[in-house]
Amino acid sequence: MRRWWYVALALACLWFTPGEGAAQSSRPTDLWTPQTKTASVTSNQTDTVIWTPASGKRIALQGVVVSAGGAGRVEIESSDVDVVPPITLDSGGFKSFDAGGVVIWSGAVDATLAYTNTGGYEGTQPLSILVWGYEY
């Protein structure tokens, strides 16, 4: 009789396991195409657009990486409002800001993503910015 219960339990587990048609949360990458945008500068920039979404779309920002040849500060912004805390580097190196794949900022329809930097480059070593996410 015990074997019957084990078989019934195994079948129930298979029957109720979520599959293609079951309600389950999908990863954003299952629904949208991930995108990366980059900038590399050797001078101070103010409100320079790094990402313009397709017409009628929004940006879902998932992360930022800043690599600098020298000390500097970078602000990632939309309409002059910081979308992540200002990133400060005391010397060359890199810093990242992400939430493990979760959206950290979602813009308005057709809103662009821009950056402003003060320093961050030294000699021939530029300040580089990488942002990633998707449009929806």
In whole angstroms, the N-to-C terminal distance is 54 Å
Low-confidence segments, given as residue ranges, are: none
What number is the mean pLDDT? 86
Residues in helices, as a percent range:
10-25%
Number of helices: 2
Report the principal-axis shape: elongated
User: How do the helices and strands follow one another from N- to C-terminus?
Assistant: HHEEEEEEEEEE
What is the rounded Rg?
22 Å
Strand content: 35-45%
The largest sheet, given as strand count, sense and whether it forms a barrel, is: 5 strands, antiparallel
Structural class based on helices, strands and sheet pairing: mainly beta
Report the strand count: 10
Question: Would you give an account of this structure?
Answer:
The strands form two sheets. Strands 1, 3, 7, 8 and 10 form a five-stranded antiparallel sheet that branches. Strands 2, 4, 5, 6 and 9 form a five-stranded antiparallel sheet that branches. It contains two helices and ten strands. It has helices at residues 2-15, 28-31; strands at residues 35-41, 45-51, 59-68, 72-78, 81-82, 87-89, 93-98, 105-106, 113-119, 127-135. With 136 residues, it is mainly β. It is elongated and about 75 Å long.
Give the secondary structure arrangement, pairings included:
Elements: H1 2-15, H2 28-31, E1 35-41, E2 45-51, E3 59-68, E4 72-78, E5 81-82, E6 87-89, E7 93-98, E8 105-106, E9 113-119, E10 127-135
Antiparallel strand pairs: 1-10, 2-9, 3-7, 3-8, 3-10, 4-5, 4-6, 4-9
